[in-house]
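Q: Structure tokens for this one, please.
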Amino acid sequence: MNTRPILDSDEGPFVLSVSLNADCSCFSAALETGFRVFSSKTCDQKVAREVGGGIGCAEMLGTTSYIALVGGGKQPKFPQNKVQIWNDQTNVVATTLEFKTPVQRVRITQTHLIVVQLNKVGIYKMKIPPERVTEYETANNPYGLCELGKSTVAFPGRTIGQVKLFDLNTGNVSIIPAHETPLRALALSRNGDMVATASEQGTIIRLWSFPSCTKLAEFRRGVDPAAIFSLAFSPSGTMLAVTSDKSTLHIFDVGSTQPADSKQHKYGFLSKVPLLPRQFSDTYPTASVKFEMGDEPTTWGPHMKSATLGAGIPGVPGGRPTKGLLGWLDDNTILILGAGQDARWERFSIVIEEDTGNKIVAPSGWKRYLDD
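A: Here is the predicted structure, written as tokens:
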């Protein structure tokens, strides 16, 4: 294994971060030298742009030619306190937003632009130039946690473990006291009626209804702590996918928060025995499978589990290359994307075993997407 520090790598190109567009049809890769766009379904490259410097994050506006760029890496192309709205048809910056502190992440749709800083979230109407709607202070948010749906924005609140939801249509604000420790991952369902949350502890994933903000379920990823990389609802909202630094993909059935009987539970009849620790009765994944995080230097590691640590690669969400990013192509097909020196695209299929009727997750394709 190559144990040299990431930023000293001379084996290019090196992917700093990766991001999916709103409908998961494409993904963008931010590099030390520019950015690229790929088809999510086939992993075929659609766009490759060398811009003469590092891009920390690149967020696509649907399938249009507009991409929000933030500088990053060893030699950033742009200052990290600016968001550049790049028009790929003309190869020029259409407009720029400047801030007092570095930008952690950007979210963008046809109607809105969300800019995430370490302790602030700004909400804008997507125009040229963007029109500010409002902004909110947040707890430390080095991972740039923020989910932008069709009519809702979800992001950390001012209190640790809290989720704030902003209704883009009405301006109403809702608050969910989701966890006692800092948030590590968020997800919104496609129709906006559910929110999934995970904390730095990484053992329990909680499911909340919206707009009522009541807790619907708790799912147990495992007993030992882990860094949750990504949460994602299936298009129909019937399943929730979870990845972690254990290199495992878990699938939970959202519509069935309790097993039909003890025979289907991980711990069998023990799940019904009173007074045993709660992990014996908790709801475990319906299916799990290993994914490849990629062969990376040892300097990329578990010390970045904590949202209180901000050191790392400048301009990159979380300070380390994206790993375990989830996207659903349809209700039976999941993608896992990773950045870094060993940048990977993996596809998994959800199938039902004929003999047992159990749901399983099976690998159905993978690629190092920067390889020629």
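A few notes: Residues 6-368 form a domain with the Methylamine Dehydrogenase; Chain H fold (CATH 2.130.10.10). Confidence is low (pLDDT under 50) at residues 1-10, 257-281, 302-310.
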